[in-house]
Amino acid sequence: MKELALWQEVQADLQQVEAELLRQVDAPDPVLSQAARHLVQAGGKRLRPAFAILAARCCGAPLERILPLAVALEMIHMATLVHDDVIDASPIRRGRPTVWARWGQELSLHTGDYLFARSLILVATYDDPRIPSVLASVSVKMVQGEIQQMAAAFDLDITLRDYLDRIYRKTALLIAASCELGAIAAGADTATIRHLRYYGRNLGLAFQITDDVLDMVADPEQLGKPIGGDLRQGVITLPAIYALQASPKKQKLIYLLGKRDKTQAEIQEAIQLIKDCGGIKYALDIAEGYLERARKQASYLPPGVARDTLTSLTYYIRTRGF
Amino acid sequence: MKELALWQEVQADLQQVEAELLRQVDAPDPVLSQAARHLVQAGGKRLRPAFAILAARCCGAPLERILPLAVALEMIHMATLVHDDVIDASPIRRGRPTVWARWGQELSLHTGDYLFARSLILVATYDDPRIPSVLASVSVKMVQGEIQQMAAAFDLDITLRDYLDRIYRKTALLIAASCELGAIAAGADTATIRHLRYYGRNLGLAFQITDDVLDMVADPEQLGKPIGGDLRQGVITLPAIYALQASPKKQKLIYLLGKRDKTQAEIQEAIQLIKDCGGIKYALDIAEGYLERARKQASYLPPGVARDTLTSLTYYIRTRGF
User: Which residues form a coiled coil (chains A, B) (predicted)?
Assistant: First the structure.
């Protein structure tokens, strides 16, 4: 899988997204500008803009049509990250100090609110009422997902269904909306909009499952933060849910996962138990099922380079190391 | 000044706002619902919905047309309050424990994000693109105002102009937008929209100046929190700006206002110095100037009960005790 070749299709567009992002987060206040620029420059895969652009391209729309929306989607994503870092008191994200670590709680809170509000200015430039409407309802559900995660912390009775519902709200919804809104902004027909939404939903679920797996098995350097962060915070993800049923050392695992203030050695031990009983493989198999469904939805789209890239992305998600 | 008689004009409408607010903040998650309901039931003057309704009534629109917008405006206001309480670590607002005090930082942050996002769903029901556009730009400027206030904490060199700019963003903008959007939703002509926006801006400035005065002179029981909160947090408001120039005990005042972790006695002493040199009277005179301008703008509106109520509200602002 050549990652660069894959992204090349949208590379030039994403460079424009990057320039526009920097322009949009600029503020009259120097500290706010700095914090927002720091967030942009911390990087990220820009998945949401990439999906919106590819979806719009599938439907024959030029970049100008989709650029404000693509930038708005990334700003909404960044707004959730900066608030998450306050809540998790995260010192590091993507290998760099967070806004919270560098500028503190008050500015982090304002920066999140600011980015979200700024994104709405961009969204308001479209005259299709479905665009603000979808984004508003996605934003509401994303917050509900965060609260579900908060309420379920250290709850070892969480079911597969609870988990899928949570990651759907937390991640898949905004990726689905990126695909859907890209198509809407491009003036696509209802069937194409629906296929792109389902593509995004399935891919988003697979993406979050893979993310949750990587939190247990990635190279910390590539991940940009220590591994086992979810276990530390009591967030029970798919490999753990499986292992809580399947592990021969179930009691030990229950003890370790339920314990607050785990040591790094305890986290390592829990991850080992999860690996030993096949929890990682199980989660990746589930992710693969969603990727297959995403591929099927892609096959219904108008043929072309954009569709091929959307299909290729389903392979990239499976093999990414970070 | 009979307060009840004045509000009677919009009382029935505000009861519908109240019912709709409770309906709108309802969430599938019980804790989120509780926190949001707690916020609604903590009360408040519902000034923003009242202004939107009166503006729409001036232009002959029925309540149904304006209700979603009126509720959205109050939700945006509530979202800023709940985030402010996190930042200020406020245990009490309007005489009741804050969401922050009762449910903690994480839920407060989510509740603010949730209310803001929910308000956008209501706003998206209007097909006039000016409505989301005005609200997005007002929200951006409100955050900038918060950051200005943060940056200016304990800055005794703040000018009258800085102060007015800050309270414009912090308070007057959303009140101006309430009036303006009420008119827009009612399909008013450009001149009427402009008069209502200017009415709201002037009234909003006077309202915040009065609020800042009350923070020094109100009955703590009526205020619902201890007095001197601004001075404690280093927020230098109009009476203090004046006193820093005019007080014969300027050095003592500089010492007291610049001091962090003031005692209650020091706060009382600072307030006394501000009162002694006429700081309160000065601020109220400035407020009165804005109220006169608001009244002038109201005089250009279509005559009727709604216009009379808007005019009467300018007298109420001046005389309110809380």
Answer: none
B289 with B212: CB under 8 angstroms? no
Q: Between the CA atoms of B251, B257, B259 and B263, what dihedral angle is there, to the nearest 10 degrees? A: 110
Task: Compute the nearest-CA separation of B136 from chain A (Å).
Answer: 5
Q: Within a domain: residue B322?
A: no
Q: Residue B218 sits in which domain range?
A: 3-311
pLDDT of B120 strictly over 90: yes
Say if A322 falls within a structural domain: no
Neighbours of B26 (CB within 10 A): 12
The answer to whether position A166 is within a domain reads: yes
What are the CA-CA distances from residue A174 to residues A145, A160, B51 (Å)?
Answer: 12, 21, 35
CA separation, residue A312 to residues A7, A230, B125, B129, B244 (Å): 10, 29, 38, 38, 67
Mutate one of A106, A115, A165 to test the B interface: name it (highest B CB count within 10 A).
Answer: A106
Beta strand segments in chain A, E = 92-93, 96-97
Q: How far apart are CA B69 and CA B53, in angstroms?
A: 9
Lowest mean pLDDT among A171-180, B50-59, B225-234: B225-234
- The rounded distance, in Å, linking the Cα atoms of A129 and A133 is 6
pLDDT tens-digit readout, B47-75: 999 999 999 999 999 999 999 999 999 99
| Residue B79 and residue B119 in contact, taking contact as beta carbons nearer than 8 Å | yes
d(CA A72, CA A24): 9
Structural domain total, chain B: 1
Tokens standing for residue A138:
């996605």
CB contact under 8 A, A83 and B28: no
The verdict on residue B32 lying in a domain is yes
Give dist(CA B118, CA B29) in Å, integer.
14
Using the Cβ of B113 and the Cβ atoms of chain A, whether some distance falls under 8 Å is answered with yes
**Cβ-defined contact of A87 to B107 (cutoff 8 Å):** no
Instruction: Tell if the CB–CB gap between B28 and A144 is shorter than 8 Å.
Output: yes
CATH of the domain at A12: 1.10.600.10
